Please model this.
Amino acid sequence: MAIGAMLRRRWLPEKSFPSYAYLPGRQPHPVRDPAGHSYNSEAMPLAAEASLDSDIFLWGLDLFNHGYYWEAHEAWEGLWQVADRGAPLRTLFKGLILLSAAGVKIREGKQAAAMRHAGRAAALLHRLTNTADHTFERALGMSPAALAEHAEAAARIPAALPETALGQPQPVFDFILGPSSGGRPISSQKRQTVIHRRRQE
Model:
């Protein structure tokens, strides 16, 4: 199956994607350049806590699955920064950040750098294979070990990417990340219900 042909559902469909998928040196830097797609904006509030059921995590999934790898990296970095040092959750976020960085390098055609980032991501994800519960598996739609294998495969076999217009997002991985329940995490659903009820009052 062609990578771009897979069904890629949205976890936060109410949020609009950035106007372009940033590749270093090819478009304005998203936050530092006045012409950047997120210059002077709070596209997503800063993370108060590291959580797999936060909108920030889900936004990272949307960005990653749809080929906005630099932007996914930025979303997950906020969660990584507030996660407890040494905690498995921090390791997971770092693995996802590195996998996003590999996506950027694959798009740039920099295979050695892509292999390095994907290999580091896989090493971190392999550390999580002994996690007692299935929280990570439910949040990602696959086990960390399976994601590590995907990362290693991506590093070994470069994706054959068709030419795209400058700034157009381009998925490069042959997998989709997302909650295995098929819906938003429970706490996010509850939060949306509360918001909806308040609007009706």
Remarks:
- The first helix runs from residue 55 to 65.
- The chain is about 50% helix and 0% strand.
- The mean pLDDT is 81.
- The two ends are 48 Å apart (CA to CA).
